[in-house]
């Protein structure tokens, strides 16, 4: 599969609907990272929406703005990478400039460059390869915020917006986001995390719930 970014309009895609709708639509789309001329990546199986200034779980809650979260304030389609301790997380800004909403890509089902990604993860493979956003970034070999503030089309990242290349889930589940402060029960419980039911690469997926077909529809 070859991604033709000339046919993609990231600005339109990441601004033409509500952020939660965009997040759900990303499920099943290929996320690619080009590393030293090699294509790494897979299908997005889990993502979370963050709804901006009103969302107590968002980094931009209440209009907070700093160099650390500036990516959220840029136009939809801008990469926002943040770090916690030694771990890095991949987000894409949504909506128009200065409307700081975004999507956290939590997990992918690896397809391209699996050997390279396994090496980047120090030999960890199987579901442990990319079943979490920090693991995914490690698999890509990313250990910095170098691509923060870059627009998708001006970076080594690509999200395939061609529906012909999208995998279709049998069922997409909406649930509460992971790791949200329970001191705010309203936003902690909002169903803004979307994932493929039964896909083993979804973070925290229980073995008894994993499906052999990984939850995808047959073509």
UniProtKB/TrEMBL annotation:
NCBIfam families: 3mg. GO terms for molecular function: alkylbase DNA N-glycosylase activity; DNA binding. CDD domains: AAG (cd00540). It comes from Lactobacillus amylolyticus DSM 11664. Signal peptide: none annotated. InterPro entries: Formyl_transferase-like_C_sf (IPR011034), MPG (IPR003180), MPG_sf (IPR036995). It comes from the Bacteria. Keywords: DNA damage, DNA repair, Glycosidase, Hydrolase. This is Putative 3-methyladenine DNA glycosylase. GO terms for biological process: base-excision repair. HAMAP family: 3MGH. The keyword Isomerase does not apply. It is an enzyme of class 3 (hydrolase). Its EC number is 3.2.2.-. Belongs to the DNA glycosylase MPG family. Coiled coil: none annotated.
């Amino acid at each position: 599969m070859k991604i033709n970014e000339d046919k993609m309009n990231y600005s339109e895609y990441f601004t033409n609907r509500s952020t939660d709708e965009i997040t759900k639509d990303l499920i099943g789309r290929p996320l690619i990272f080009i590393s030293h001329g090699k294509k790494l990546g897979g299908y997005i199986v889990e993502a979370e929406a963050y709804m901006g200034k009103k969302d107590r779980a968002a980094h931009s809650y209440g209009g907070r703005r700093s160099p650390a979260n500036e990516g959220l304030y840029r136009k939809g389609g801008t990469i926002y990478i943040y770090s916690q301790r030694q771990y890095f997380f991949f987000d894409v800004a949504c909506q128009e400039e200065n409307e700081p909403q975004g999507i956290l890509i939590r997990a992918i089902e690896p397809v391209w460059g699996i050997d390279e990604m396994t090496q980047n993860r120090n030999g960890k493979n199987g579901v442990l390869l990319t079943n979490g956003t920090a693991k995914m970034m490690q698999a890509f070999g990313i250990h910095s915020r170098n691509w923060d503030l870059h627009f998708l089309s001006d970076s080594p990242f690509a999200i395939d917006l061609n529906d012909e290349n999208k995998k279709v889930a049998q069922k997409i589940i909406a649930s509460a986001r992971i790791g949200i402060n329970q001191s705010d029960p309203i936003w902690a419980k909002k169903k803004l995390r979307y994932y493929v039911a039964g896909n083993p690469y979804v973070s925290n997926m229980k073995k008894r719930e994993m499906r052999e077909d990984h939850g995808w529809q047959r073509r």
